[in-house]
Design a protein that fits this description.
The protein has about 290 residues and is α/β, with parallel strands linked by helices. The chain contains twelve helices and twelve strands. It has helices at about 15-30, 45-55, 70-75, 80-85, 95-100, 115-130, 165, 180-190, 195-210, 220-230, 240-255, 270-285; strands at about 1-5, 30-35, 60, 75, 90-95, 105-110, 130-135, 135-140, 145-150, 170-175, 215-220, 260. The protein binds adenosine-5'-diphosphate and magnesium ion.
Amino acid sequence: MSTVGQPVAREPLVGRNEELVSVHACLAGGRHVLLEGPVGVGKTALARAVCGALARGFVRVDGDGRYTESKLVGQFDPPLVLERGYLEEAFLPGPLVRAMREGAVLFINELNRMPEGVQNVLLPAMDEGSLILPMLGEVRAAPGFAVVATQNPAEFVATGALSEALLDRFELVRLDHASEEDERCIVAANVTGSPSAALVAGAVALVRATRSDPRIRRGASVRAAIAIAEIAQHLPEAASSTRAAILRAALLALPTRIELADPHGTSVAGVLADLGERVGQEVAVGEPSAKKR
Ligand SMILES: Nc1ncnc2c1ncn2[C@@H]1O[C@H](COP(=O)(O)OP(=O)(O)O)[C@@H](O)[C@H]1O
Ligand SMILES: [Mg+2]
């Protein structure tokens, strides 16, 4: 499914000023941009904010393994072809052709999940602003056409990396996890309900600790901190101990989001118990005198 047009009103982007400057400079220079970074780092949020701020329109496509070339390009409508022949009116343009004709940005979320054939269709469009369609002829890109795509780096994806040829058409903007302060703002902005500042700070501190613990191969993203804050405020522990609520919520939110270095060694619960201790000392979670770092 693709969506066209104006951005849905969402929480505004927190921080990412340097990345925004880079992306806008690339687009102003007529280049295509690939946003790369770990799962949950904020690639989609950044791309959405970029697209929403542009004077030109955008068309969004979400990558998946069963996406097809004809979905991206468009296809002839069989009944209309029978009625009128292979004419323009019988062609239902896909996101790529729409973006090219309108001089819009084609925002491809998780491009690396797209099958190779779909990736290949993009090459001439990105390179020469031209696409040859059987029975229809050439589609030329109007000024302003550009591709903004996101991908998870290779070690995070089970399937597919982008081809060298496709990478060669993109400028790369890498995203790393936001600062602790920004992550607190992101959690506060995205969580439903009204968690206390201590709860938000504790959830962020715990999640950040998963990224540097040697027993954890892949730590969690801010998305996990959002989940922890969201759950913890509804747990009975929240009334008496923010820290206990965070730890219980973390046991629900983290097992699916972290990868242990040795799955046969320490359990997630074991690691969390230790991290909880450390986080408790660092941010004095739940104490009225919460000392923020
Ligand atoms: N800079 C940011 N400002 C506001 N929300 C953000 C920011 N970065 C991440 N988020 C939020 O964190 C969650 C994960 O971000 P997302 O863009 O989906 O990550 P990715 O696409 O890299 O997997 C989403 O709920 C998103 O809205
Ligand atoms: Mg994403």
